[in-house]
Structures are given as C-alpha cells and as structure tokens.
Amino acid sequence: xxxxxxxxxxxxxxxxxxxxxxxxxxxxxxxxxxxxxxxxxxxxxxxxxxxxxxxxxxxxxxxxxxxxxxxxxxxxxxxxxxxxxxxxxxxxxxxxxxxxxxxxxxxxxxxxxxxxxxxxxxxxxxxxxxxxxxxxxxxxxxxxxxxxxxxxxxxxxxxxxxxxxxxxxxxxxxxxxxxxxxxxxxxxxxxxxxxxxxxxxxxxxxxxxxxxxxxxxxx
Length: 219
Prior knowledge:
Layout: H1 3-9, H2 14-25, E1 42-50, E2 53-61, E3 67-76, H3 86-99, E4 107-111, H4 122-130, E5 134-138, E6 145-148, E7 151-154, E8 157-163, E9 172-178, H5 182-191, H6 201-217
Parallel strand pairs: 1-4, 4-5
Antiparallel strand pairs: 1-2, 2-3, 5-9, 6-7, 7-8, 8-9
C-alpha cells in the first residue's frame, strides 16, 4: 500500500506531525548531560514487528557488558510504517519497556536516527520522552544527509560520525539523539564494539534477547 493510501486509511495529519517534530526538536541539546566516562548502566532497545504486533525489549548491562536487567513490552501496532515517522509507530512500546526497568540507565542505545533525521529522529524523540540520553546507531544515512570524510553532514552542519566497526562490513552511522554530544556518542560506541560483532555489544545483547522473547511468546 502506498504512503498516501496509508495516510488516508489511518486518517493521519502529516503536517500536524511534522509541526510536532519541529517543535520538539527545539528541546534537543547536544551538550553532555553527565560524565559519560563513569557510566554504570548501559541500556539498549530492540524492536521486533510481527504482523500487527510489536515487541520492544530493553537490556541493561554494566561497562563489562554483564546483563543487569532485561524487560520487554508487547503491544498492537497502531500506526503504519511511514518514512520519517517511524517513532509514531514504535516509540510508545519502547517507552513502556524502559518504564518497566527497576532503575533508570545512564544511556540508551537504539538502532535508528537521532539528529540526522530531517526533523526529529527516533533517538531524539525517545530521549525527550524518557528523559535519558540516547544515541542512534543507523545502518545508512538519512535522506538530506551526506558523508564528508568521517563526518555525517546535514545542512552544512555536522550531525554524526561514521564508524567502521568491523573490517569488510558496512559502516555504522553514529548520531546522538539528545543530552549527549557527537564526539562523546562516537567514542562511547567505538569502545562498545566487541568483535566479531558489528554492533556495539549492548545492542547485540538486546538483539539476542529479542529473539529469545519471540520464541518464548511463540510469535
């Protein structure tokens, strides 16, 4: 089904959502909100979509990548997939999963965009929703962004950095969501790579846990 048909079917006011994204984007800060060299609780979120359902899992690990806690939330999908509006589809379940944690993590990692998004990436939207710094790790650059050396640039401004985490693999595109700087985001993720895994280790653990939850729920 084409996007225009989905918009009509779900009665979505796209211009209103764009306005909301732009309004929220003004709340983003790229200043480090804490000393990230001493973080103790690193969270990572992974989503699985199965037909009309979504599972959001969250794992929390320490700096040695030992799992401290893991939670998940299962819900029905209430919003279609629309380019640039992924957060409206996946964010509510992610927030519910994070809210189940017994203690708030110091940082959250997700697979997706932060400030690389034209208006408000899911990493930024999630951070504004839960009040925790979030880093987006994307597999490709978003429309409107371009690569300049090792930097990701949007509207002539640096919005992220490229990380070749594994030899002969496609690079990762690291861009902060909120409450953390570009350089700190890059350095944190670089130090979380544990070969042979391409993704930072917390996201690898979240992906593994998501598969376990899906098997447990028999979905």
